[in-house]
Write a structure and sequence with these properties.
This protein is an alpha/beta fold. 44% of the residues lie in helices and 15% in strands. It has helices at residues 17-28, 40-52, 67-80, 104-132, 153-173, 200-209, 218-229; strands at 8-11, 32-37, 57-61, 86-89, 135-140, 178-185, 240-243. A 7-stranded parallel beta sheet has the order 3-2-1-4-5-6-7, with helices on both faces. The protein binds NADPH dihydro-nicotinamide-adenine-dinucleotide phosphate.
């Protein structure tokens, strides 16, 4: 089960945190993985680490807010490892603030990365998937795109948008045998959340909201991605798989 041998995968934002774990899990399942970062040396560092573990990997520079960079990065992937057959839209960012704190710039910054960036990458990846008649697009949203949380208007809206975009693309690509799904984690301790979670009140609120009682691990998210990328998940499309320790079951 879940053998990805012969498949090529792109993981955006694979330099650290959840993306790093996803890249490793896909590689362990047999895929050749292109890891991206805005800094080429970071992408190449992770690719080299995967290669040292005996996997096939490539480091590619990519800022998902630039259409030109997205086109160039996918062209590099096409030429060097083929495909991709699998795209994981993991690159993401956040700006926290209340209604009176968030400015236009914060909204544009968050939406351009988390939502439009994922669209740009899906468009380029699908250009390679359609002719082959097989593909997997997996978007990393968040439980914050399903339930409301204070100070997360821009982030929550970007992730809710990603969930809805996923449904639309799933319908548009179903006949081409390309599935499009979401993995939506609750809080994982990474560079994205570490500072916010230093606030004892937020930390306690978050843990109290997760019935399992602990933070989610990057490997929990990666396992869900490997499943959705697999041959076995071919009939699962347009779905949001929450990896939230039960948060949204309330
Ligand atoms: P990190 O901050 O640890 O990593 C973010 C990754 O995204 C980095 O690899 C970074 O690459 C990349 N990135 C950021 N902006 C861009 C950009 N403009 N173009 C390309 N890459 C970019 O975050 P996490 O690992 O925590 O988050 C990964 C994903 O998971 C995000 O989509 C996030 O919203 C989502 N998520 C996270 C949760 C959490 O609690 N941590 C919970 C739910 C969802 P680099 O800086 O090297 O360019």
């Amino acid at each position: 089960m879940f053998d990805l041998s012969g498949k090529s995968a792109v993981v955006t934002g694979g330099s650290r945190g959840i993306g790093r774990a996803i890249a490793a899990a896909l590689a362990q399942a047999g895929a050749t993985v292109a890891v991206t970062s805005r800094r080429l040396e970071e992408a190449q560092r992770v690719a080299a680490e995967l290669q040292q573990e005996g996997h096939a990997a490539l480091g590619v520079a990519l800022d998902v807010t630039s259409s030109d960079q997205v086109r160039a990065a996918f062209e590099t992937v096409r030429q060097q490892i083929g495909g991709p057959d699998i795209l994981v839209n993991n690159a993401g960012t956040n700006r926290r603030g209340t209604l009176f704190e968030l400015a236009d710039d914060d909204w544009h910054f968050v939406l351009d990365t988390n939502l439009v960036g994922a669209f740009r990458c899906a468009q380029e990846a699908a250009r390679s998937m359609v002719p082959t008649g097989w593909g997997r697009i997996i978007n990393i949203a968040s439980q914050a795109g399903v339930v409301g949380a204070p100070r997360l208007a821009a982030y929550g809206a970007s992730k809710a948008g990603l969930i809805q975009m996923t449904r639309v693309l799933a319908l548009e690509l179903a006949e081409q045998n390309i599935t499009v799904n979401v993995v939506a984690p609750a809080y994982v301790v990474t560079d994205l959340t570490r500072k916010a979670l230093e606030d004892a009140t937020l930390r306690a609120t978050v843990l109290a909201s997760i019935p399992r009682g602990t933070f989610i691990q990057p490997s929990d998210v990666a396992a869900a991605v490997v499943y959705l990328a697999s041959l076995e998940a071919g009939m699962v499309t347009g779905h949001t798989l929450l990896v939230d320790g039960g948060w949204t079951a309330r």
